[in-house]
Backbone:
């Protein structure tokens, strides 16, 4: 389990930078759809070849619901937004999924958030305000539609994670992941075509950097990172699982600065500290409720 946590911490922190390079010359939804559909097909065929039983109709339906929420709603919105928002700031906004986790647990019949939990939520919202307000990135305003899409993605990701813990999915982690990726990837492809991305995609115009980023996202981000996350959803508590939310942004911000030259101003550092603090508070307080 320690290895799975390490993979989710590091690999997912790096995928934000990978997405930012991939969408430079590839349409976001079709890129994400191809990434997850291919990865899902590989995982599905591999798990079936190893003897995993064929998913039932109910498991396909549940996998489609979870896959659509996590991949179309969660990853798809993030991928689209990274055309407009730097990768490090994207990761910081995605960390607000932990705020939604607490509220969703309450809505699902859990205990009401404590005053300390409410303080964590308020702290997280303050960090978001620092990021999306005027002057957040060197005097420029963070793109508002992009920021809104990322915040919505955090909500859909949290909903998908909560549902995944409650519905019947294949017992095999590889098979469950494959089903979610196949169905979620298909919805991404359909969404991309519906929004006209097929007319804008020209294979010859895909840059070398975007192609390398796509391969990294496919083989490392999807096959390794997402599989590790699916394993942790089924084998650890939401409190421990939520810890990735305050490691990924730090990794993403540092990689964006070191490799892509993304600016890290004093305001970004302060916002990162505030959001990370909020997620830590919420993770610590979530354990008694979630367990």
Residues:
């Amino acid at each position: 389990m320690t290895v799975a946590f390490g993979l989710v911490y590091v690999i997912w922190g790096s995928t934000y930078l990978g997405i930012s390079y991939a969408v430079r010359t590839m349409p976001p939804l079709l890129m994400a759809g191809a990434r997850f559909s291919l990865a899902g097909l590989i995982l599905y065929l591999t798990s079936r070849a190893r003897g995993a039983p064929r998913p039932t109709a109910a498991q396909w339906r549940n996998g489609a619901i979870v896959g659509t929420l996590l991949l179309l709603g969660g990853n798809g919105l993030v991928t689209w937004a990274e055309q407009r928002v730097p990768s490090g700031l994207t990761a910081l906004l995605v960390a607000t999924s932990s705020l939604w986790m607490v509220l969703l647990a309450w809505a699902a019949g859990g205990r009401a958030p404590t005053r300390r939990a409410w303080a964590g939520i308020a702290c997280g919202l303050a960090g978001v305000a620092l990021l999306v307000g005027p002057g957040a990135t060197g005097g420029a305003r963070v793109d508002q539609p992009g920021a809104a899409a990322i915040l919505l993605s955090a909500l859909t990701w949290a909903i998908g994670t909560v549902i995944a813990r409650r519905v019947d999915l294949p017992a095999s982690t590889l098979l469950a992941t494959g089903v979610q990726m196949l169905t979620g990837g298909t919805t991404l492809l359909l969404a991309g075509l519906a929004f006209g991305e097929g007319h804008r995609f020209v294979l010859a115009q895909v840059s070398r950097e975007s192609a390398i980023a796509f391969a990294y996202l496919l083989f490392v981000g999807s096959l390794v990172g997402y599989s590790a996350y699916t394993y942790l959803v089924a084998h650890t508590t939401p409190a421990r699982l939520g810890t990735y939310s305050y490691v990924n942004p730090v990794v993403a911000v540092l990689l964006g600065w070191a490799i892509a030259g993304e600016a890290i101003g004093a305001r970004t550092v302060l916002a990162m500290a505030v959001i990370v603090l909020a997620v830590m508070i919420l993770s610590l307080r979530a354990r008694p409720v979630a367990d």
Notes: Residues 35 and 218 are 5 Å apart (CA to CA).
